[in-house]
Task: inverse folding
C-alpha cells in the first residue's frame, strides 16, 4: 500500500549484505561445534576413569596416514572450488573426485581401526568408559564425514551430468566450508584422542 | 469500570493473604521453616538470607515506586491534545548511573555471599565430631556411625551441640541408586546424595528435639515419602542410644515361629538382624526396629498394626516402594509381626 | 466470511474448499503462515500443559490427597515441564520471530523458506512423539507409559535400571527432534536478519525486536548443541550399553547435570529475550515515545547473551561443588542482574514523560515489568548460593521460575498476541474482553505464584505427589490451587476472544496503533510477498519519519 512511499528517490550507496549461504553455513558450524565440544569434554573428563581395560595406551595407534588423507582433502576441495570459479570444469571434476577419494580413504581407515579394536582387542562401546567415549566421539566425526561424502557425491553426480557450471561456484563454495569444518574437527579429535588421550 | 472491578479483586486477594497468614500463625511455626534455624550453618545462612532479602526488598520498593509513579503520572489524560509527547532518545549520564549503582549492589551481595560459602563449606572437622555416613536408597535413608559401629535407618540420632563446646556432626552423603538430597531446613541447607560422587555436610544443633525434613531431589516414584527425622539428644541420651544400638538384636531364647518364617523367606535377602542369619543390606537394618518411631521412611507410625499392614502389602502404604508383598498368610503375618515387635 | 470484499488476500482463499486450504497450510513455506502454525501449535500444547498442571494442583490441594497415584503425578510434572518449555514456549517464540522478523526488516520472506517449513514440522513431530509415549511406550510390565523422570531427567534415574520400558526414550527422541528443528529455525532467523535487511537498515537501525531475536538465535545455536549431545549420549547409554551416565561403571551423574544446564540456563534467556523484544516494541508505541537508550538496550542484550553461557551451575549449588566453583557461579549469576536491571530502567524511562495508552497489549507489558522485577529479585536471592541451599529444589524455586516464564514471558507474549493480532488477521480483537482476560489472568497468576513462594520457605520440596499435614503448607497449597482455575478461565476467554474476533472483529486497517515499524506499512494481513516495493529506511522508526516529516528521527540517531 504505502510501501512505495517509503522508497527514497536515490540510494546513497549500493546496499550490500553478507551472502546468506555463507552466514547460514557458519551458523550451522557454530551449532555443530557446540555438539562436538560436549563430546570432547566428555572424552577428556572420562580419561583414565575406566574401571576395566583396555586402555587407550594399550590399543590405540595414531592413524597418521588416514589423517593426512583427510587433511589433504581440504586442499583438494579448495583447488576444486578455485578451478570452478575460474570456469575450468574438467579440473574441478578431477579435484572434486580426489576429495571424495581421500574422504573415502579416511572412512576406510576408521572402519579398519574399529574392526581391529572390536575383534582383536575386544573393545566395544559398552566395554568401559574409554570405549564409550572413543566410539561416540570418533563415530560422531565419522558420521559427519559420511554426510559430507554424500553431499560431495551428489555434486559429483551433477558434475558428471554436466550440470555444475561456473555460476554454481557460490553453492559449491558453501558446501566446501562444511568439508573444511569436518577436517578441522578431525584435527581436534586427533589431538584429543591420539595425543592427549594416550 | 474495569479498574474498579480489578480493585475489588485486589481486595479479595489481600483478604486471602491475611486470612492465611493468620492461619499459619496459629500453630507457632512450621517444623521445616527455613527461617527458624537451630544450628550454626542454618543460622549463618539465615543471616545472609536476611541481608539479601533486605537488599532485594529495597530495590523492589524503589523500582516499583518508579513504575507506579510512571503509570499514574504519565497516563494519557482524557483532555489529551492528541499531540505526541517530546521524544527523548536516551541519556548517557542516566544510563551510567543505573549501571554503576547495580554493579555496586552486586559487589556488596557477592562479598557477603562468598564469605558465607567459605564459612559453611570450609569448616574444619574437630576431632570430637560425630561422623555419620548417610546413604540414600529408593526410598529410605541408611545411617552408619563407622566409629561407633552402629547401623540404623531413617531416624538419625545426634547429640546436641553446646555453642561453647561444640560437638558437631559431620555427615558423609552417599547414594546407593539415584540422586537424593538431604534437607533438614532448621539444621542446614540441602546437599545432594549422588552415586559415585561423595558429598559431605555438617550440623551442630543447639537444642534437643526432633527436626524434620525430607528428600529434596526427585529420586523416583516415592520421592514424596522419603522423610527425614533427626533426633537431637543430650549427650547422655545419645551415648545410651549408641550403646543400645551397638548390641546384637535382643532375641528370645527359643527361636519363635515368626523368626523362622522371616529367615526362610526372601526377607533376609534385603534385611539384616544383627546376631542372626539375616544379613541383607538392600533394605533397612531391623536389629532395633522397635526403637524407631516410624516405618517406611517416616510414612507411618511404627505400631504393630502398621507393621502388619506394611508387610502384608507395602503398596497400600507407599505405592511404588521397593519392598515386595511377600504374600504371607494371615497366620504367618501375625507371627512375623510378633517377631519384629521383639526387636528392641 | 467477507461480504465487504476489500482486496484482502485472505478473502480469496476463504472461498475455496476446505481441503484445498488445509493443503495449502500444510505445504506452505510462507513465513507468516509458518509463524501462525507455530503459534497455533503452541496454543494447543499450552492447553494440554495447563491441564497437566491442573491435575497436579488438584492432587496437592490438601495433604495426603489421592486424586492421582504417585506414578501419574510424576508423569504429569515431567510432561508439563517438557511440554511447556519445548512445545509451548519455544514454538511461541519462534512463531512470533517467524512472523515478525521479515516484516520488520523489510524482507519478503525468511532466508530459507523451505528450511523454515522443515524446522516447524520437525518441532511438531517432536511434540507428537512425546505424546505418542502415552500409547506407544508400554515396553515392559509396570514400566508405565509417559516419561516420569522429570523435565531435566537427572541421571541415573534415566538409566535402563531405573527407567524400564520406552518412556524415557520417547522423551529423549522428542527433545532431540525438536532440538534439530530449533537449530534450523535459529539458523534461518540469524541469516534472515543478517542478510535480508532492506536498504538503509544498518544493524544500528534495526527495530529492537530484530536485534533481540538475533541474539536469541545465536543463543539457540550455542545452547541446543549441548542438549543434543547429551541426548545422544543418553540414547547410546540406553540402547548400546554405553556408560556416559552409568554410575555403576564409573560414569558420572553430575556431568549430565552440567550438560543439561549448559543448555538449560541459556534456554531461559532464549525464551525471555524474545519477550524483552516484544516489550521493547509495545512500550514505546503505547507510551508514544522512542525507545530510551536503544544502543544500551542492544549492548545489555548482548551482555546477557554472553553472561548466560557462564551461569549454568547455579542450578547445581546443592550438588556439592567446590567452594571456588560455587563462588564463581554466584558472581556470574549476580552479574547478569546488572544488564537485566538496565533493561528494566530503560523501559521505565521510555514510559517516563510519555502518554501511556492502557490497551490490552500495554497492560500486559506493565504487568510484565512488575512481575519480571519480582522474578529478577527472587532470582538474586537464589543466586546467593547459601540461600539457595535452603531454597533450591523447593517450591520457592518453582514459584520463581514460573514468575519468569508465566509472569514474564507469557505475559509479554499475550501482549504480543493483542498487539499483532490486527496485523495477522486484519481484524481488531475485542478490547473489553481483552481487558477481562488480563485482569482474570493477573488475579489467577498472583493467587497461584505469589503464594507458591511460601511453602518453599516452609520447607516444601518440589516434585512431591503428596505431603504430610502439620507442616504449615496446607492453606498455601489451597490458595495456589484456587488461582489455577482463574488462570484456566482467563485462557478460555482469551482463546474465545481470538476466535470470535478472527471472524467478527472490526477491520483494523494497516496501522491501528499508529505505530512506527515497517510491518505497519503493509496491509493487514500482509500479502504473501509482504511488500509491493522493498522499502528503504533512514532511521529506527521509519513510520515516524513518514508521519512527522518536520521532525524525523534520523536527525537525532
Result:
Amino acid at each position: 500500500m504505502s510501501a512505495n512511499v517509503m522508497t527514497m528517490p536515490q540510494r546513497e550507496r549500493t546496499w550490500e549484505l553478507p551472502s546468506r549461504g555463507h552466514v547460514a553455513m557458519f551458523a550451522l558450524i557454530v551449532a555443530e561445534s557446540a555438539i562436538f565440544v560436549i563430546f570432547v569434554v566428555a572424552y577428556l573428563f572420562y580419561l583414565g576413569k575406566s574401571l576395566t581395560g583396555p586402555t587407550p595406551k594399550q590399543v590405540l595407534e595414531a592413524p597418521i596416514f588416514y589423517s593426512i588423507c583427510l587433511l589433504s582433502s581440504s586442499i583438494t576441495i579448495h583447488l576444486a572450488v578455485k578451478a570452478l570459479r575460474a570456469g575450468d570444469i574438467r579440473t574441478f571434476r578431477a579435484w572434486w573426485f580426489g576429495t571424495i577419494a581421500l574422504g573415502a580413504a579416511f572412512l576406510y581407515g576408521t572402519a579398519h581401526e574399529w574392526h581391529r579394536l572390536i575383534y582383536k582387542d575386544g573393545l566395544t562401546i559398552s566395554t568401559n568408559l574409554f570405549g564409550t567415549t572413543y566410539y561416540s566421539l570418533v563415530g560422531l566425526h565419522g558420521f559427519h564425514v559420511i554426510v559430507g561424502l554424500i553431499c560431495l557425491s551428489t555434486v559429483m553426480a551433477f558434475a558428471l551430468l554436466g550440470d555444475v557450471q561456473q555460476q554454481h561456484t557460490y553453492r559449491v563454495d558453501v558446501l566446501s566450508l562444511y568439508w573444511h569444518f569436518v577436517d578441522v574437527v578431525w584435527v581436534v579429535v586427533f589431538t584429543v584422542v591420539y595425543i592427549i588421550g594416550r | 469500570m474495569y479498574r474498579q472491578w480489578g480493585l475489588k479483586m485486589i481486595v479479595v486477594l489481600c483478604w486471602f493473604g491475611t486470612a492465611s497468614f493468620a492461619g499459619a500463625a496459629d500453630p507457632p511455626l512450621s517444623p521445616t521453616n527455613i527461617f527458624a534455624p537451630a544450628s550454626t550453618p542454618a543460622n549463618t545462612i539465615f543471616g545472609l538470607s536476611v541481608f539479601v532479602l533486605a537488599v532485594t526488598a529495597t530495590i523492589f520498593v524503589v523500582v516499583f515506586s518508579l513504575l507506579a509513579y510512571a503509570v499514574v503520572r504519565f497516563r494519557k489524560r482524557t483532555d489529551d491534545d492528541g499531540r505526541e509527547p517530546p521524544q527523548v532518545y536516551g541519556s548517557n549520564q542516566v544510563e551510567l548511573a543505573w549501571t554503576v549503582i547495580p554493579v555496586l549492589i552486586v559487589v556488596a551481595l557477592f562479598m557477603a555471599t562468598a564469605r558465607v560459602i567459605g564459612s559453611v563449606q570450609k569448616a574444619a572437622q574437630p576431632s570430637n565430631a560425630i561422623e555419620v555416613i548417610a546413604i540414600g536408597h529408593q526410598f529410605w535413608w541408611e545411617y552408619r556411625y563407622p566409629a561407633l559401629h552402629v547401623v540404623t535407618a531413617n531416624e538419625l540420632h545426634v547429640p546436641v551441640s553446646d555453642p561453647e563446646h561444640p560437638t558437631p556432626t559431620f555427615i558423609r552423603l552417599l547414594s546407593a541408586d539415584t540422586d537424593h538430597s538431604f534437607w533438614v531446613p532448621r539444621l542446614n541447607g540441602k546437599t545432594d546424595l549422588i552415586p559415585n560422587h561423595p558429598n559431605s555436610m555438617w550440623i551442630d544443633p543447639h537444642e534437643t528435639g526432633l527436626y524434620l525434613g525430607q528428600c529434596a531431589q526427585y529420586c523416583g516414584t516415592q520421592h514424596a515419602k522419603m522423610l527425614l527425622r533427626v533426633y537431637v539428644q543430650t549427650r547422655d541420651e545419645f551415648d545410651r542410644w549408641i550403646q543400645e544400638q551397638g548390641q546384637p538384636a535382643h532375641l528370645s531364647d527359643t527361636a519363635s515361629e515368626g523368626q523362622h518364617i522371616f529367615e526362610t523367606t526372601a526377607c533376609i535377602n534385603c534385611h539384616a538382624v544383627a546376631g542372626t542369619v539375616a544379613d541383607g543390606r538392600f533394605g533397612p537394618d531391623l536389629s532395633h526396629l522397635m526403637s524407631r518411631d516410624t516405618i517406611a521412611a517416616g510414612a507411618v507410625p511404627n505400631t504393630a498394626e502398621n507393621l502388619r499392614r506394611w508387610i502384608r502389602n507395602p503398596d497400600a502404604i507407599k505405592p511404588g516402594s521397593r519392598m515386595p508383598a511377600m504374600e504371607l498368610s494371615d497366620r504367618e503375618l501375625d507371627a512375623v509381626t510378633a517377631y519384629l515387635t521383639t526387636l528392641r | 466470511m467477507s461480504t465487504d470484499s476489500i482486496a484482502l488476500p485472505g478473502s480469496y482463499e476463504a472461498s475455496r474448499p476446505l481441503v484445498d486450504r488445509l493443503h495449502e497450510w500444510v505445504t506452505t513455506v510462507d513465513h507468516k503462515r509458518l509463524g501462525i502454525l507455530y503459534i497455533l501449535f503452541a496454543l494447543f500444547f499450552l492447553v494440554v500443559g495447563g491441564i497437566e498442571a491442573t491435575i497436579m494442583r488438584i492432587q496437592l490441594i490438601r495433604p495426603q490427597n489421592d486424586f492421582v497415584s504417585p506414578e501419574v503425578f510424576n508423569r504429569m510434572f515431567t510432561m508439563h515441564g517438557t511440554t511447556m518449555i519445548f512445545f509451548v514456549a519455544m514454538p511461541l517464540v519462534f512463531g512470533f520471530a517467524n512472523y515478525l522478523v521479515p516484516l520488520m526488516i523489510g524482507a519478503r520472506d525468511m532466508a530459507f523458506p523451505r528450511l523454515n517449513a522443515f524446522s516447524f514440522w520437525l518441532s511438531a513431530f517432536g511434540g507428537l512423539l512425546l505424546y505418542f509415549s502415552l500409547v506407544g511406550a508400554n515396553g515392559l510390565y509396570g514400566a508405565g507409559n509417559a516419561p516420569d523422570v522429570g523435565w531435566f531427567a537427572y541421571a541415573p534415574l534415566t538409566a535402563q535400571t531405573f527407567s524400564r520400558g520406552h518412556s524415557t526414550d520417547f522423551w529423549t527422541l522428542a527433545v532431540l527432534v525438536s532440538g534439530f528443528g530449533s537449530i534450523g529455525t535459529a539458523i534461518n532467523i540469524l541469516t534472515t536478519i543478517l542478510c535480508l535487511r532492506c536498504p538503509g537498515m544498518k544493524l544500528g537501525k534495526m527495530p529492537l525486536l530484530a536485534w533481540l531475536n538475533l541474539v536469541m538465535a545465536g543463543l539457540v545455536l550455542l545452547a541446543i548443541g549441548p542438549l543434543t549431545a547429551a541426548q545422544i549420549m543418553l540414547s547410546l547409554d540406553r540402547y548400546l550399553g554405553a556408560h556416559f551416565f552409568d554410575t555403576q561403571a564409573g560414569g558420572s551423574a553430575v556431568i549430565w547435570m552440567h550438560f543439561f544446564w549448559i543448555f538449560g540456563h541459556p534456554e531461559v534467556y532464549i525464551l525471555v529475550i524474545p519477550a524483552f523484544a516484544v516489550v521493547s516494541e509495545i512500550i514505546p508505541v503505547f507510551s508514544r515515545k522512542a525507545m530510551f537508550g536503544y544502543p544500551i538496550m542492544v549492548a545489555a542484550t548482548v551482555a546477557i547473551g554472553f553472561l548466560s553461557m557462564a551461569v549454568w551451575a547455579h542450578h547445581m549449588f546443592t550438588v556439592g561443588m567446590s567452594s571456588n566453583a560455587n563462588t564463581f557461579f554466584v558472581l556470574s549469576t549476580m552479574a547478569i542482574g546488572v544488564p537485566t536491571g538496565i533493561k528494566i530502567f530503560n523501559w521505565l524511562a521510555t514510559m517516563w514523560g510519555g502518554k501511556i495508552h492502557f490497551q490490552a497489549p500495554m497492560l500486559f507489558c506493565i504487568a510484565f515489568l512488575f512481575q519480571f522485577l519480582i522474578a529478577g529479585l527472587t532470582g538474586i536471592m537464589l543466586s546467593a548460593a547459601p540461600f539457595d541451599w535452603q531454597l533450591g529444589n523447593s517450591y520457592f524455586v518453582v514459584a520463581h521460575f514460573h514468575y519468569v516464564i508465566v509472569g514474564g514471558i507469557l505475559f509479554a507474549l499475550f501482549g504480543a498476541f493483542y498487539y499483532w493480532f490486527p496485523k495477522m488477521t486484519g481484524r481488531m480483537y475485542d478490547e473489553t474482553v481483552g481487558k477481562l482476560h488480563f485482569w482474570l489472568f493477573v488475579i489467577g497468576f498472583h493467587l497461584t505464584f505469589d503464594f507458591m513462594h511460601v511453602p518453599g520457605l516452609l520447607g516444601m520440596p518440589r516434585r512431591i505427589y503428596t505431603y504430610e499435614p502439620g507442616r504449615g503448607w496446607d492453606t498455601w497449597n489451597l490458595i495456589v490451587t484456587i488461582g489455577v482455575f482463574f488462570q484456566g478461565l482467563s485462557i478460555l476467554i482469551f482463546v474465545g476472544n481470538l476466535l470470535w474476533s478472527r471472524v467478527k472483529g472490526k477491520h483494523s486497517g494497516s496501522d491501528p496503533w499508529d505505530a512506527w515499524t515497517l510491518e505497519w506499512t503493509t496491509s493487514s494481513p500482509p500479502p504473501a510477498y509482504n511488500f509491493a516495493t522493498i522499502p528503504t529506511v533512514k532511521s529506527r522508526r521509519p513510520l515516524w519519519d513518514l508521519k512527522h516529516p518536520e521532525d524525523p528521527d534520523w536527525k537525532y540517531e
User: Anything to note?
Assistant: Chain A has seven helices and no strands. Chain A has one domain: 33-45+53-196. The two ends of chain A are 68 Å apart (CA to CA).
